[in-house]
Structure formats: structure tokens, C-alpha cells
Design goal:
It is built from 35 helices and six strands. By secondary structure, the protein is mainly alpha-helical. It folds into two domains: about 290 residues, ABC transporter involved in vitamin B12 uptake, BtuC, CATH 1.10.3470; about 290 residues, ABC transporter involved in vitamin B12 uptake, BtuC (Orthogonal Bundle), CATH 1.10.3470. The termini are far apart. The relative contact order is 0.10.
Amino acid sequence: MTPSKTTSLGRAPSQIAGGWEAGLIVFLFLLYLAGVIVNPGFFGSTEALHALLRDTSRVGIIAVGMTFVIANKDLDLSVGSTYGLIAVVFARLFASNVLDLGVVGTVLLCVLLGAAIGLVNGVLVTLLKVPAFIATLTMLFIGRGFVLALTHGQAIYYSGKAKDYPYFFHLGETNALGFNNQIAVFAVAGILGALVLAKTRWGYETFATGGNEQAAVYAGIPTNWVRIRAYLISSLAATLAALMAAAQDKGATPLYGVSWELTVIASVIIGGASILGGRGRVIGSCLGAAVVVLIDKVLRQGWPITRTVVIDGESVEVGARYTLPAGAVLVFLGLLLIIAVLIEPYLIRRQAAARFWAWLTGRRPPAAREVGGIALAGAQTRGATASEMELSARRFGKFFARRDALAIMLTLVLWLAGLALRPDYWWNLSNTFAILLNYSELALITIGLTYVIAAGDIDLSVGAVLALAGSTAAYFLKVLGADPMTAIAMGLLAGMAAGLVNATVTVGFRLPSFIATLGMFYMARGLAAWFVAGQQLTGWSEAYNLIGRKVNDVLLYFGLVLPPGILRSVAQVVSIQTIWMFFVAVIAGVVLAYTPLGLKICATGGNLRAAAYAGINTNRVRFLSLMFAALCATMAGLINIAYFRSFNPVAGQFRELDAIASVIIGGGSIFGGFGTMIGSLAGAAVITLIRALLQLNVQGFSMPQHWINVFIGGILIIAVLIDIWVRQANVFGRLRTRVASGARIGGSVHG
């Protein structure tokens, strides 16, 4: 019998470094060379290289921790706010004019805080089943709210006291060898992280969990602990980076860590990690951090130019430097994130470089790797229990079983609470409609987001799209002197272009919607600031502002005067934007509840695979939903600048958090498949009333805005937990069933 011939599979790829890292080194060299050519005065010096390595150190250390999270098929959007919060807490604990603690106690408390943040993230994602991007996005906003609240918008410095603790603060200074100590810490963290991920059981468990969590569970791996551990590593890495910044700057500002989550995620993905999990190398992430930081420096440093200045009638040439406008760097970083995520499925998994090299050398090309997600995927429609409860309930129970009943009841309770606290303010008709004006903007955004969430996607860019549409219209009105209709048309064009990018990248390139819209979140926000050069614009034709005025103001503008009476009183308090919002809500609600498109949206979100088998064009449904969300955000942006008669670059800030919370409170499921317009509008009313109540001046006290954002973040988490455990897992129903069955068994035994 002839022995069978075996074929060797060859050497396994290295988990430390490989060809991708070599390519990154070459790319870094070429990029730095381009910086030298463009701006030799800066990049041609050894100081520039030293500054690059120093600034890469902090980003790179956070990227080391993020590699563990992404390899687990999770995401940590809170690292930037964790970095900023730890730096601010260190400043408040250590500064002599605040709490004046010693450096050892301050560092220990900061480490404990960092570990607590990581533990909270891990528990939310694993044990409480909150989607990673929702849990960590909420922690991002909560952390940013704490940063602004603790600093009161001002920097905190402690350079005088730092002289008493030279050993710690030498961490941020240059050592005897001529380089900053942060570089040495970064090198140690990178090597240690690379060895742990590539050569230890921790790394094996991480890759197994990220590659196929279900199979990892069958293999006996404690996947929940593996994912919690990754969040702890990520948060502690951000803590270490923040302590390094505290040692270097000897102070902290409210801007610490802003958009760093974008920079770090892009670094890890550029370094070769897969957003789908199961792949990642720490050395690649460190090199990716160097690439992102270098790109950022090239863009921010600009390039030298010569300008001609007229002095006393004579032209004099002077040296100057051209830098990109405000917001431009943020645009490029958002674009970089999307491109980086596309690299993995279209270049790495398909082995584009190896196939191109095989084509050049005439060899047989290697087979493309599997480009899908995980090997095993469940096909389960979520929330069936809640639907069964609603169908089987009777009389009043039928209302209480509705998914939107909680939002409706909360709206009533909050309204009565406001009336009890400040009846003089709350019962005033003009104040009531002032609250309604704030509600209209959020409700418009929520209407569109209801479609997206019901279809099983998410749109994190709605607040930024609002700002983009508003800035575009304001730019055309103020700078170009355009007429109102042209400004509205250009604002619509800008907002819908953002929606088109979101829909194309999500549906066409099959990226997770939270990644595509996260990139657009930064791009649209950067473009909004770019158009207006980071300044507030105001002072255009009042004809445009009519879409944000009261009905009576519009009538007076056209020379119509209503007679005294109820009609005029109503016209004096009801706004055009409120009427428009209800008009859009009615149409959107009818479409979602009573048309085939609405049924297709819920079917797609409930079970994408089953909907496709049923003949539904799920790509078209998701595409239209994302476009509609962009349209609603655009309309809100156009009305925003009309209502305020100006555009502020911070317009729409935190609106994505409010809108997501509104939909979930209103009965929508974060996993898709459910959503009602009445529920979402009631959810928006809950958020609006909570904000109004927290800002209400009761006996001389009102809560600052930054603490309100922290409170709203907590509400979002609670709303998601209610959706997961009360509406879908029906824990109370299970508990009642268990108690009832226990009582029956006890009764039979007693009998």
C-alpha cells in the first residue's frame, strides 16, 4: 500500500511582526521625507524626529491596549475621554490650590479610577450585553462631561509644586541619553504588549475570542473575562498615557484627549488589526500610531510660503507659513479612519500585496482569505418576548405591554414634576412653547434615527451632519451673500452628501455602520468648522430666519395682522419649525407603521438574513434609512441657524447621544427590528423635559450644562439595559414565573 503524501502548510505567520510592519516602516520613511521636502525648517531637524517619537509615545501606549480590545472583536470609544479625565483628576488631586495631595497617593487614585472605567466598560459589554460601541460611546460623553465640569473650562497647572517631586516629573523630560523618557516607557510597553499578545495564553485566548467567540466558549475559554481583561488593559494604558502627559505638561486642559479615540482606532487598524476581530499585532499598532501622528504633524505644521506685504506704498516679501483651516485636520483623520478600516477586508484579507507580487514574478497567486465575519452566526430575531406580551395582553395591560408605554408615562410624570417645582414658569404658555422649540430640533433628528435603528444600524453622525448643513447654509448666506433658497439648497446638498457617504460605506463596502458614521462624525464636524474658519457667523437676511420664527412673526413679515383673540395668542407662541416637525413626523410614522417599506425596515432590522431570504432588498432598505436620517439632521441644521440667527461650530453637540437615547426610551431596540414614531417622539420629549428640569432654577440652584450631559449619558445606558433585560430578556416575567412555579411546588408538597 502506497503511503499517502502530506503537504506542508509552511511556517505559521509571526504574531510579533511581519511584512505589513515592514511596509509601514517604509511608508513612515517616505512620509517623513515628504515632510522634510514640504517643510524643511521643521522636519529637517532632529528636534522634529524627537518630537514625533515623544508624541507617538502616548498615542502608541493607548494603541497597545486598544489592540487587545479590537482583537477581541470589541471597540473602546472611551479612551480619549479616559485619557483626559485621568489627566484632569491628577491635576485636581495634586495641584496645591485644589486638593494638594502627594504624588504617590494621586497616582494610585488615578490608577484605581482608570481600572474602574475599564471594569465598567467590560461589565456593560459582557455581563449586561450592551453593544460595545454604545457602552463606550456613552462613557466617552460622560467622561468628557466630567472633564469640562471638573475644569470649568479652564486649565489647571502645578509647575511650582512639581519641583518637589523630581523623580515622577522627570518621566516627561529628556534623560542623560538625549531622548525623552516617555519614549523609553513606550518602548517597554510596546515590547511587553507584543510578547503578551503573541506568546502567552492571554494572547491565544484573545485571538480565539475575537475570531469565533462561540467556538472559544466550546473550547473552555472564559470569553467574558477575556473581554473584560482587554477593557481593563485598554483603560490602564490610557491612564499610563495620561500620567505621562501630566508629568510632561505639569498641568491639564479641558481639551486633553479630544478625538484621541479616533486617532487610536485608526492607528490599530492601520497597524493591521481587523475590526472583525481575531487579528492584530502590537508592533503594527505602534507603527500605525507613528503614521497617524506623523500625518497629523504634517497637516498641522503646514509649509513655508512667501507673502507680499505693502508697507508705506512699497511691496515687501516676508516669510510666512500656510496652515490648514480650523477643522481640516479632523476631516483628514475621519477620512483616515474609514480608509484604514477598508484596508483590512480589501487588502489584507485578500492578500492584495502578495497577489500583486505573484503577478509581477509570474508565480501562482495565493488564495484570498475568508472575507466574512465569524464562522458561526446566530439567526435569531430579538425581542419576540415583548411582542408576545403585547399581543396577549388585555385592556389596560395592552397599553402597559407596549414598548413605547414607558416613554409616554415618563413624559407625563416629568411634565407634572416641572409643574410642581416651578408652576410660575411651567404653566406660562410662552415658556411651554420655548421648551417645545428645543424639543423640535431633537425630535427631527430622532425621526430619522428611528428608521436607522429599526433597520438594525446606527448613525453616530447626526449631530455633526446638523452642524455641517447649518455651516454650509450660513457660509452661503453670510460670506457669499446668497439668497435664502440657494442657501437652503446648498445646506441640503452638503447634508445629503454626508448621508450618501454613510450609506455607501455601510452598505456598499459592508463596513459596520458605527464605524462608517463615526468617521463621518469627525469629518462633518471638521468640515463645519472649516467652512466658517472656526468662527461664529451671524447677520444675514431676515427672510431666511422665517423658518425658525413664530407663526405670527411670519405673518407680520408679509404684512398680515391677526385680530386679537385665541388665534393670535396661539400664532404668537407656535413656531414654524414645530409645525414642520409634526408634519414630517406624521408622514414618517405612517410610512413606518402602515406601508410595505416600514414593514421591510423592521424585518431587515429584526433578522437581516431571514429578510433577504424573503426577497427583501435589505441593502436598499438600509441605504434609504441612512439617507433619511441624514435628511432629518440636515433639516434640523437649517432650522437651527434660522432660530438662533447665527451659526456656532458647536451646534448639534451631544445630539447623537440625545437622539439614540430618545429612540431606545421610546421602545426602539438597539439591536433593530422595532420602532414607532409615537414612542420615539415621546422619548425625545423625555430627554427634552429632563434637560429642562435639570436647568430649572429652583430656589437659586440650577445644574451646569456639563453635568447634564453626564446625566443624559447615564440615562442612555439605563434605557439600553431596560431594552435588553426588561423588554427582550423579560427578566421580571421570568422571575414571576419562577416564583409562581415555586409556590405551586410548595403547595403540592405541603398538601
